[in-house]
Design a protein that fits this description.
There is one protein chain. This protein is of the alpha/beta class and 519 residues long. It has 22 helices and 12 strands. It has 2 domains: 281 residues, Aldolase class I (TIM Barrel), CATH 3.20.20; 112 residues, Cyclin A, domain 1. The protein starts with a helix and ends with a strand. The C terminus is likely disordered.
């Protein structure tokens, strides 16, 4: 070895010894919940996830999101699967991981507000069954609607994460998000999440908001950032958020990422090479997780979103990934997939009328359903019950004023007056009533968990309780079976469906049906 080479080596070693340690950025893996909710309408069966759990548990994630959101509904509505069994299974299979859920504040996992006793009971039982981290949000960013849930999480000694739903409008500002962060931390949150459910968070706002919150509340305030990938800009947004001080970011393993889903976990890892940041995730484990879901994904082809590339049009509609895939699935089932663009164009108009709420469950479904009705029947000829309630304040306060003419129509339709109090303050105690009704159903096992299932989905739970003994149903199909169905559909004599189109949209067990003649 020459003296020159030895000197270069020595200089490198000296520089390496002097270089500061990299800051570890935590990662929340979304494969077990939001990834398949966004890409395949929440249809993935538990049996298709369990074999990946050991690798997920050992990969080094900050947390594993695996419950909440639409998974509870999908379990009992489509999969004949007890969601509480799913949670306990994940707890058993991932003993070293913090399990995380998405909780809709006073809505819990349903589509209406629940009285405080029910909120407390849900948090208590989910903690008993294995939940650790509660990402708690309100669909209209009304902090009053997450107060009780966050108090409940603190009482059971779990991690309470207050959530800011990111959206854009003429009224939304960086300072407004900082103010909301203060309100949430005053409730005693352990961390904050900036939740971008529709891939709207561009890189510069990501940096500006995270930095502003850190500067205002202190650098020790934990900030998590959640982005979807639909618009194609948000991997850069995660980088900028990290540079601004974000502590944890959300990703999905690459084989079930992108489209209306999320940025790939492995891409995040690679992006941080050569920077002052690292995830410290286990690359070998990530490869195994990737391969597992690559083998599973083809089974759910019929539920997959048609969005496979980049859709910057989402900056206008602001519809979140999970809502797009469900809306596409529903319209295709009715032979009306060609109406999706019309509906998406109507969404921002409906949103402005409603006071610019963020579009996240259930507000996204409420605004989206009204947009469908407006597209098919004319603007506000019919108001859904949920949209009328949104206009009257029964989902909480919005950042902007709501259209007075539509408020009047909502009053006339519902015979209710507008309100400006926390909606749950108007609710009577209901836990005992829910217990009596649930326990009277055939197949109910008398547990608080079954009462909560009934409380959240009273229109679906009775059928689920009856059929639960039959065991879970996997709605995925063998890829060969899917190919055969496609071939049969393209055979001579099979043309487009003729006759009227029937649209059906269900919220909280209430079905809205609209029939439209084809042009």
């Amino acid at each position: 070895m020459t003296a020159q080479v030895e000197q270069v080596q020595a200089d490198n070693e000296s520089a390496g010894a002097a270089s500061p340690a990299k800051r570890e950025v935590g990662v929340t893996e979304l494969a077990l919940r939001d990834a398949h909710q966004s890409l395949m309408a929440t249809r993935m069966a538990l049996e298709d996830m369990v074999d990946a759990c050991a690798d997920i548990d050992a990969a080094g994630y900050w947390s594993v999101e695996c419950w909440g959101g639409a998974t509870y509904d999908s379990c009992i509505r489509f999969l004949n699967e007890d969601p509480w069994v799913r949670l306990r299974t994940f707890r058993e299979l991932m003993p070293n991981s913090k399990l995380q859920m998405l909780l809709r504040g006073q809505n819990l996992l349903g589509y209406r507000h629940y009285e405080d006793t029910v909120v407390n009971k849900f948090v208590e039982k989910s903690a008993e069954n294995g939940m650790d981290v509660y990402r708690t949000f309100d669909a209209v960013n009304d902090v009053r609607n997450v107060r009780e849930a966050i108090k409940a999480v603190r009482r059971v000694g779990k991690h309470a994460q207050g959530t800011i739903c990111y959206t854009e409008s003429p009224l939304h500002t960086v300072q407004g998000y900082v103010d909301m962060a203060h309100e949430l931390m005053e409730l005693g949150c352990d961390s904050l999440c900036l939740k971008d459910m529709a891939a709207l968070l561009r890189p510069q706002p990501a940096y500006d908001i995270v930095k502003a919150i850190k500067d205002s509340l202190g650098q020790d305030v934990r900030i998590h950032v959640h982005c979807h990938a639909t618009t194609g800009v948000t991997l850069v947004s995660l980088m900028k958020a990290i540079e601004a001080g974000a502590d944890v970011v959300d990703t999905a393993i690459s084989s079930i990422s992108m489209g209306p889903g999320h940025n790939p976990t492995e891409s995040l890892v690679e992006m941080l090479h050569g920077t002052p940041y690292t995830t410290n995730l286990d690359d070998a484990r990530l490869l195994k997780i990737k391969d597992h879901f690559a083998g599973i994904r083809p089974k759910y082809t019929e539920f997959m979103s048609a969005i496979t590339g980049v859709e910057t049009e989402i900056f206008k509609s602001q519809i979140p990934g999970g809502m797009i895939s469900n809306m596409e699935s529903q319209l295709r089932q009715q032979g009306a997939g060609d109406r999706l663009r019309e509906v998406l164009e109507e969404v921002p108009r409906v949103r402005e009328v409603a006071g610019f709420p963020p579009l996240v469950t259930p507000s996204s479904q409420i605004v989206g359903t009204q947009a469908v009705f407006n597209t098919l029947m004319g603007p506000y000829k019919v108001l859904t019950a949920e949209f009328a309630d949104l206009m009257l304040g029964y989902y909480g306060a919005t950042i902007g004023p709501r259209d007075a003419e539509i408020i009047a129509a909502a009053q006339a339709q519902t015979k209710k007056e507008p309100i400006d109090v926390r909606p749950a303050d108007l609710l009577e105690p209901e836990w005992q009533k829910l217990c009596d009704e649930a326990n009277a159903l055939e197949g109910s096992d008398g547990t608080d968990e079954d009462v909560l299932t009934y409380a959240m989905f009273p229109g679906v739970a009775p059928k689920f309780f009856l059929e639960r003994p039959e065991g879970p149903k996997n709605v995925g199909k063998d890829p060969a079976e899917v190919a055969a169905e496609k071939l049969a559909a393209s055979a001579p004599g099979t043309g487009p469906v003729k006759g009227p189109i029937n649209y059906s949209v269900t919220l909280d067990g209430r079905a809205h049906s609209v029939t439209v003649e084809r042009a």
